[in-house]
Amino acid sequence: MKKFLALLFVFLLTVLSVSAVAEDSDLLSRIREKGTLLVATEGNWSPWTYHDETDTLTGFDIEIAKLIAAGQGVEAQFMETDWASILAGVDTGRFDIACNGVDYTEERAQKYAFSDPYVYTEIVLVTRKGDDTIRSFEDLAGRTTSNSPSSTYAQRAEALGASVVYVDTLGETMVMVEQGRVDASINAKGSVEDYLSEHPDANIQIVQTVPGDPVCYPVRKGDDTVSLVAAINDILRQAREDGTLAALSVKYFGTDLTNPL
Description:
By secondary structure, the protein is α/β, with parallel strands linked by helices. It is built from ten helices and twelve strands. The strands form five sheets. A three-stranded parallel β-sheet has the order 4-1-5. A three-stranded antiparallel β-sheet has the order 10-7-11, with helices on both faces. A hairpin with a 5-residue loop joins strand 2 and strand 3 (57-58). The model is unreliable at 4-23 (pLDDT under 50).
């Protein structure tokens, strides 16, 4: 019995030691140990992240996420969720990283650690075709728009004095504008152009285009995530230098968005 208890004691000490090491290691080490990078994405925001005609998850951010994972010798495990849950999931550790065209803002940077920018996009103001009462962003005061909750587009609309109706997807946003259920919407130029290419008869129009915020990858802020951000930046730098990043941008957006506007 004494020998059994001694062996059990040694076993428990070993388990506790291994657990302590795992807890003390940084996020990148834990990712490499488990062999997977948990990636949050919507899966319904073309051309960033969407399902193709075979229902395969693809898109600009999906391909880059795979590059980031491969650079660490692990597999990217994509976890599709609505936009409102993405950053919250990164914050709680449910996801290692968010790959979903996330804009960098000073407000978000207070809570999340961001990679270097990898693309620079423009944003557009969309109205119902033929509506000439809204010609610029300044005309949104007192009007209604549709956007995902907590998105920078919704925040911009609210700052301009608009009331925002929250929806989950770009498709819902555009349909609400088409049907006159809201007056306008703000969104990424590439996504709206992609929507128009798939819906050429859509009853919407772009009335103004302005520079947007730089797009970066957010991870949870903390001492244990510093090495992950550095690793992501290394992959992005390599992809920029060898032309991969520009090629992917042209593939999905039709133009090179990798340089500051």
